[in-house]
TrEMBL record:
Location of region: Disordered: 1-95, 182-207
Pfam families reported for this sequence: Nnf1
Cellular compartments per GO CC: MIS12/MIND type complex; nucleus
Record flagged with keyword Cell membrane: no
Single GO biological process annotation from the record: chromosome segregation
Swiss-Prot/TrEMBL keywords: Cell cycle, Cell division, Centromere, Chromosome, Kinetochore, Mitosis, Nucleus
PANTHER family hit by this protein: POLYAMINE-MODULATED FACTOR 1
Protein localization: Chromosome, Centromere, Kinetochore; Nucleus
Organism of origin: Verticillium nonalfalfae
Biased composition (Pro residues): 36-50, 192-201
Protein name: Nnf1-domain-containing protein
Keyword Nucleus part of the UniProt annotation: yes
Biased composition (Low complexity): 71-83
Amino acid sequence: MPTYRARSTRLQHQLQHRDIASNGSAYSHHLLTMSQPPPSDNPPPPPNPEPTEMDTSPDNPPRDPAPDAPQQPADQDEAAAAPASPPLPEKHTPVAPGYRAARFIKMYDEALRRTLARVKYDNFAACFPTIAAHAPNALRNVQKQMVDYLEDRCNKDFQAILDERDLVRKLNELEALVAEADRQKGEHPADAPEPIPPHSLPPEAVIKGHLHPPLAHAYSHLSAALQNTRMENEDLFTTIQAQRAEMDALLADLDGVVADIDGANDLLGEVAPELAAEARKADNGIAGI
């Protein structure tokens, strides 16, 4: 079994070297092709015809050139035909990678570094012995450019995948969930009973488990509203008690005033006949005069 694995690994390495060599050959051929000037497909311009003499005889008077057609404003047409620009995409907010995300990125960097380290100049030169013998510097430049291109392209693709899948944030959430699970596991004593698997619970327990979070939130909200209502009722009760005490005081004062008026009426009732007689005498005296 180890011999079969070693052979398969060696065969994979040979296939990788062949692919890299073929890519390098195509890339070097592309560089050589780009360095040569492209052939000109345009034919030479024809010779200019000899100018003909203009007949200016009276029978053939010179004609005025045709008046130019009125040009329409092109700016208005372009402005009308131009479509509305699409809204700009939302700016990506980078997230600081946690421990797991940092380890994932580091593992990718190490894997890429080890992969590109196999594209050495010796392996590259073995695929192109003629170029390595006559132009080793050019081959070194091609090998370096190829390695740099592969590294840059891999990094860009990896970063695009990270941004598209939002892996850093999700790995941070996974790390938070694992930390929360460890914390809850540490809070339970060692002799605590084993938790019941969720798939073995009855439907009523599962339904209650799903309904408990929203019901707990609603209960807390209603409890806060009830507490506020109770405080408002207490304030209103205190205000009503103060108003009732004030009303009782006003009624007591009013009762005192009524008692004073009744006492005054009683006193006037005793002296009223005498005052009436004196008033009549005074009227008679005034009438006799």
